[in-house]
Each structure stands twice: as C-alpha cells, then as structure tokens.
Amino acid sequence: MSTKITVIPGDGIGPDIVKSALEILEKAGCDFEYDYVDAGLTALEKTGELLPQATLDTIAKNAVTLKGPLTTPVGEGFTSINVSLRQHFGLYANLRPVKSFKGTQARYDNVDIITVRENTEGMYSGLGQKVSDDGSEAEAVSKITREGAERIVRFAYELAQREGRKKVTAVHKANILKSTSGLFLKVAREVAEEYPDIESAEMIVDAACMRLVMNPEDFDVIVTTNLFGDILSDLCAGLVGGLGMAPGANIGKDCAIFEAVHGSAPDIAGKNLANPSSVILASIQMLEYLGLPEKAEKITKALADVIESGDRTTRDLGGSHGTTDFTQAVIERL
Predict the structure, then answer these.
(1) Residue-level pLDDT at 126
(2) Whether 195 is catalytic
(3) I want to staple 123 with a disulfide (CB 3.0 to 4.6 A). Which of 84, 98, 227, 241 is the partner?
(4) pLDDT over 60 (residue 76)
(5) Angle, helices 323-333/14-27, rounded to nearest 10 degrees
C-alpha cells in the first residue's frame, strides 16, 4: 500500500518548485499518492479562507505534508500561516540542516550544521501582541516553559546520537533575558548531563552569530529558542549559498510538515526561474523521516552532481537555466 502525502503547492513560485520535487520523487521510485490542498493567498482566493478546515483535516489524516512557500505580509496583515500550522499541529521541532555543495557560490566548502529550533513558544507564540490606539506603543510577550525547553533540547541530543553527531551547542541570551533565556539555558544544562557521549557547549546568541561567520566548522548541532533559531538558521543558509539551498522540517508527535524555507518570490512567479533545491532537499528530509534513506541518498547524489557540474543550473547557482531544465538535469542522473 502506497503512502499518502499531503501536498500544499503554496504561493508564488511554490507550485513550480513543488512540481519539480514531485517529479524527482517519482523518478527515484517513490510510490506515493498525493492529496493536494491549498493554504495562504491561493486558498484565500479560492475559498475566502487562508487556512481552510479541509486543508487542516487532510494534513491530520495523512500525517506527512510537503509544502511550498506561503506569503506572509511584513509589518501588517494576517498572521503567518506557517506559524499557525506549527501551533495547530504541535510541531514543536523545526529542523534546518545546511550542508556545503560543491559548485555553489558559497564562501565555505566545509559546512555541515543542523539548527534545531523550538517551534511553538518564545516571541513567535503571538502572546500579548497589541498596539496602542494612537500607534505610539507596541508590546508582545515571550513565554518559555520547562516542558517546551526540555522537549526541544532532548530532541537535539537524540538527533545527534542517531546521526553520529559529536556536539550540541545551546544558544541563548541568558545574560540579559534572565527569565526566559535563563530557563532555557538551565534546562539545556540539565538535559546535557544525560548525554555524556555528546560534547555540550553553550553560547550567547550574538557571539554565536560572529563565530558562525568566522569559523562555521566549530558547530555541529545548534539548539535554541524560536526567534534565535529563525535568525540563526537563515544565517547558516547564507554559509552554503542562500535560502535556496536550505530545507526545513517541522516535526511533532503525530505529524510532520516539510517545506522550502524561503519566501514565495512573487516577482519571479510563473517565469521558470526559481531554484527548486530547497523543496527538493525538504523532500529528502521527508524520505528520511519515512524510513527511506536509500532513496534520499540517491536524490542527494543526483542533486549534488548537477550543482557541482553546473549542468543547467539556475541563476543563483551561477548558471543561466530555469526550474524545468534544472529538474530535468537531476532526473537524468536518477
């Protein structure tokens, strides 16, 4: 019996790059069935809702989702659909791996870092957000729980053990945010004692940013709170060529959503220009989650060979080709 996957094509360039990933999965011999649903602006145009109940029901039913980018307005408008999905399904762990690929225009060639980000608490929880009537003041509440901190730190150490990683670095701002970041650091220290086989480190977030830029090889697994994790994981993406080379997994107890982490890029939507690597890499994460490591490795090798050879690569990778040509180059290697 084939596995059923929920697919959210997304907004902007989403449908094109998700189509690319699905074609590659098929060529790699993945026997999946797909339920297509909408969210974000596409859903709003079709149904009048940003996150229809039918979409939520399908995600819950199939338990595994592959998602393209969704549009989130800056500074105004509706709440991020990505955040809403994470909170609705309790997807507490955001897993953002970055790895150097030969052939990109990245500054480094030896990066291999996984950022494990707490996905439901902290400044992204949406608690207490309000603006005064005259627009002169705004405030929000950051909330960290012992349960949430312990759950994400333990996830990071279990991941490190499972993948043969040697080091976990807890990133915080406990010198200033003594309550919230202080609790996170206290819990991280307690959990670290249970994993003596893994090297444990801790670092203030601003120092971590500097160290990542100067010596990224010092990092292996990073575990941190929601806001810091969002910023650090994008910084890490910049070390390997940008957000086009960075996938993301949102994992909870009963459900997982795998996604391209970049935006919907409406300026190039429908122009066959987008690099589909982020969502291809997200589909590789999905295969690993589903216990299909051989197929995941097969696609990874094909993708790496296309990028290293420069065969039909997209503009951000130094080439002059589009999404469909890039996809075909990967498929030929499969």
Answers:
(1) 74
(2) no
(3) 227
(4) no
(5) 10
Superfamily of domain 1-101+240-334: Isopropylmalate Dehydrogenase (3.40.718.10)
Nearest of 66, 30, 3 to residue 256 by alpha carbon: 66
pLDDT digits (tens, 9 = 90+) for 218-241: 999 999 999 999 999 999 999 999
Helices 205-214, 226-239: inter-axial angle, 10-degree rounding: 10
Catalytic residue, chosen from 11, 230, 295, 298, is 230
1-101+240-334 and 121-239 agree in CATH topology: no
pLDDT (average), residues 89-111: 95
Is residue 254 flagged as an active site residue? no
pLDDT of the residue at 125:
76
Catalytic residue from among 38, 124, 295, 311: 124
Q: Would you list the domain boundaries of the chain?
A: 1-101+240-334, 121-239
Q: Write down the catalytic residue from 130, 166, 178, 206.
A: 206
Decide: 170 and 200 in contact? Cβ < 8 Å.
yes
Q: Is the pLDDT of residue 37 over 70?
A: yes
In the annotation, is 234 catalytic? yes
Q: Which of 234, 305, 316, 325 is catalytic?
A: 234
- Our answer to whether residue 124 is catalytic in this structure is yes
pLDDT at 83 (0 to 100): 86
